[in-house]
Amino acid sequence: MTTYWRLNGVRNRLIHRDRTQFVARKADEIELAAKKDMGSLSKHLRDLTENKTPTLGPVLSREGALLSDEDSCLEQWKDHFCSLLNNTGPSAPPNDNPSQPCSHRPGTDVPPDEPFSPSEIGHALKRLKNNKAAGICGLNSELLKYGGPTMLLFLHTLFSTICQTEIIPED
Predict the structure, then answer these.
(1) Quick check: 116 pLDDT over 80?
(2) Is 18 exposed, middle or buried (0-12, 13-18, 19+ CB in 10 A)?
(3) Where are the domains of the chain?
(4) Which of 28, 55, 105, 137 is the most buried if burial means most Cβ atoms within 10 Å?
(5) Distance (Å, whole) CA 81 – CA 117
(6) Helix 148-164 / helix 70-85 crossing angle, nearest 10 deg
């Protein structure tokens, strides 16, 4: 574990150094552009301030092929969430041990017909750290934490639906 922390510190220092060099290089380019003409200055400023949209990472198809083009990735995500939200069954098993349903979590006294209690979800939400996002979706933990009873009800319904979905083993 100490090796991890040491390497993580090295990584953080390198990221900080690269970011500092990038900012210094951009500042020099903008300063030089300001001395030349307003057209190149506005181009540099536009490059820095225009909205950048996040790109999708590659995803696996149901057949196991790696999809990298944006249209097929979006279609795969659409199929995935439609199957979750419409309760038509998952496209792939969500865990390595599909024989163990969600409702049998060790150390909890939640009845099998209710895989997650709202109080259990509320307690987990309170433990989330602020200013963190789960992924490219950009859902901040604050949105989940301060969503109130409506958010808690939605998450309870979503998690219950996911856990009650029949898992179809792959042959």
Answers:
(1) no
(2) exposed
(3) 2-49, 54-92, 99-171
(4) 105
(5) 23
(6) 90
pLDDT at residue 81 above 60?
A: yes
Task: Check residues 1 and 118 and name the one with the higher pLDDT.
Answer: 118
Span 9-19, average pLDDT: 91
Distance CA 25, CA 32 (A): 11
How many Cα atoms are found within 13 Å in the side-chain-facing hemisphere of 62? 15
DSSP state of 140: B
Contact criterion met (CB below 8 Å) for 123 and 79: no
Q: How many CA atoms lie within 13 A of 82 on its CB side?
A: 6
Compute CA distances 152 → 33, 87, 113, 134, 158, whole Å.
Answer: 52, 20, 18, 17, 10
- DSSP code string of 61-72: -TTSPEE-SHHH
SS3 59: strand
Are the C-beta atoms of 116 and 156 separated by less than 8 Å? yes
Q: Residue 83: left (phi > 0), alpha (psi -120 to 50), or beta?
A: alpha
Is 116 exposed, middle or buried (CB count within 10 Å of its CB: 0-12, 13-18, 19+)?
buried
Quick check: pTM over 0.90?
Answer: no
pLDDT of residue 87: 60
